[in-house]
User: Fold this.
Amino acid sequence: MVRAAVLSAALLAGALPLSAQAASVEADPTIRVGLYYGSSALAGANLANEVGEGYRFGYFDEDRAFQELGYTYESTVSMVKTQNVWYGTGVDWNGSGYYDSQTSNIAVGCWHLELPGTYRSFEEAADEAARYEGGFPARIAGVYTVRVGTYLDQDEALDAQASLGLSSASVAGTSGAGVSVVRTGTNEILFQFDSTQGLYLAVNPGQSDREEAQTHFRGNLYFGAFEYRRSGGDITVVNVLSMDDYIQGVILQEMSASWPLEALKAQAVCARSYAWGTLQASKHQGDGFDLCNAVHCQAYKGVAEMSDNSRRAVEETSGEYLWYNGQVAEQAVYSSHNGGASESAVNVWGNDYPYLTGKIDPYEAAVADRISNYNWTVTFTGEELAEKVGASADIVSFQITETSATGNTIEITLTDANGKQYVESGDDCRTVLGLRSIRYTVNGGGSASGGYTVNGTGTLSTLNGAYAVNSDGDVSALTDGQAYVITGGGSTALLEPSAGGSSSASVSSGDGTFTITGSGWGHSVGLSQWGAYAMAQQGYTYEDILTFYYTGIEVRTP
Assistant:
């Protein structure tokens, strides 16, 4: 199973946010992507060059332009907070790193001796620092200074002051906003930066922007630069890069790089449109970045495993967005596969977007045999269902009380042994029960009412999702109230539910279990990734794919 199915199932499963359209849309803006933050923030973060020589130190200004303050030709560097940290081996992605309490013989102390005076440039400060063992240039409060040593406490720093004869130097202690750059695996500080002026240390791989650097961080490969923020605690790590470079990483998480080019291009345009919407919504403004790297925004883990097709998909759609009624279609959501029909956003999340309307999907069926668990079945006991909906007694009845025009389940009613009812609607019909999709029917262990009887051997809760083939070989969907049968007497009769007089399924459990049978995986709104795959295999272009899954849109640059 490709990663698309693994990672897209939960993508954007919650209610869609509303955001204002920006006055002007940028084709390829610079964006900030949070990699480690909050509870995942780090004591130290290692970088290793894959492509590009050395690193530049600086910050990003209000226009997101990089301003250089210093540099190194080292190929591996680590950014550590200006509190005591230790280097050693441990159980993490790299097998080694800097930690708060890791014991080893390599410690980066947060106490230093600061020489008097300031310096006009990084080079001037670096030359002066080279005169002292353990000396390094620093940018503190907007000026260059020189500091010496990495001492674990103030007493150790004072002892060094005396032994080195640096009576004119002052003792500089820990900083809640400071970040040090060290040569990885050592306590040798190369540069130190204090972010008290509202500027944050940025490390830009390579010595110029003429070569697109590639850098390893925690086992993944990234384009762009990195920003390190502190506000008294650990370090928030942010990847700063172009929109197109970010989209390259997203499509690698959402589709296999070996998939057809046109499917990858469709995914690229969707991901770019959704990223722009997230950027405008300022979801993570308080965290110091634009988007996170999880499915809360879009899955992103750098650019490893690029293929020629994945590169082309981004390059050949560069700057292109989905547009509806003169604005970017910011809710260009997608899921792995819809099971045969997409769904309108209003029926899933309650927000009505005209370009997110449900429709029967004839394309997925062509590749259904390639999709793991395309059709699925799960059985619950009444007790298990009670736990899921918070009932105090076992569930004894499961009713699909509303289906959409495309046959998806959009409201269910569960009744417990005390007669209390529990109603779920929209995407909760899936998520509350832990189901793979909203496209399903239910059977109650052999005892049922209100379903369609099929040859006396089972029940069909609804005709939605069922198909018929006419004499011309055309396939068409059946819907409740439109199907007829020929009776034993040769007359034609409208097919009605076998009991209950309603097209909704009301299933009572005969043996204490409920079996739910469905197809698809995800919220079913917008693009089906496997549907895009099938359409591309059939010769459709990415524009064809996108205009099928998103109603009334156009694909273009700003």
The chain has a mean pLDDT of 86. The radius of gyration is 30 Å. Residues 261-281 form the longest helix (21 residues).
